[in-house]
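User: I'll paste a sequence; please echo it back and then give the predicted structure.

Assistant: Echoing your sequence first, then the prediction.
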Amino acid sequence: MVAPNGARKVKADHPQVPLDAGEIAAVARDCADAGAGAIHYHVRDAEGGHILDAGLYHEATAELQRVVPDMHLQITTETVGRYHPNDMRDIVRAVVPQGASVGVREMIPDGVPKPEDVAFYNWSQEAGIRIQHICYGPEDVALLAKLLAVTELERQGIWCLFVIGHYTGRISYPELLPSFLAEMKQAGIDSDWAICAFATEEAACLKAAIAAGGKVRVGFENSVYMADGSIASDNAARVREAASFMADA
């Protein structure tokens, strides 16, 4: 999966960060050619800021469907300190996307699944929306287990993304991965899992995940660095390098 823009990066961070629907679709085409099978995308407001907006998502999704019809398309519900669980649920209901990423702790901030959470997740499954459960730490896997216990979601093959490190500079140590996997095993969750990591430590984390049987998400949302520490020319370069790691595994 490629995550080409995220909520925060702009052209000043890298000129190849895509911001509007046309740019996102063009990057998706290049990344599909480089080996990506899915795209996780954010839409931006007129000032380039993160926004959860159904109209902008419909516009970007339509362009992506035209340009990369075979790619899995995943919108984000990330709050970035601006939105709340109701907003997360509302944007998915308004867009009815093919896929959506949902941070477990963002959706259930007090750690107790509510009836509205149960209704949302059950509705998403019935609507055929593939939810990727974002886990920022092993404790989020435990919270996901609580959610699974009170919903109709399948435990077999549930889709998870383990976030190794943090964009603010918390280092992405590969040694953090086993704690996610141990929590998943203890919870009895059979997950189709992937990781994302950050900055110059990203490559080591990707290789560790691939060696452990996982998948990977790369792109400028997480890192603009190649494994040798140089700055990637574009998102497709990050995809090509990740694909080479998988080929060598």
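The radius of gyration is 17 Å. The domain at 21-248 is CATH 3.20.20.70 (TIM Barrel).
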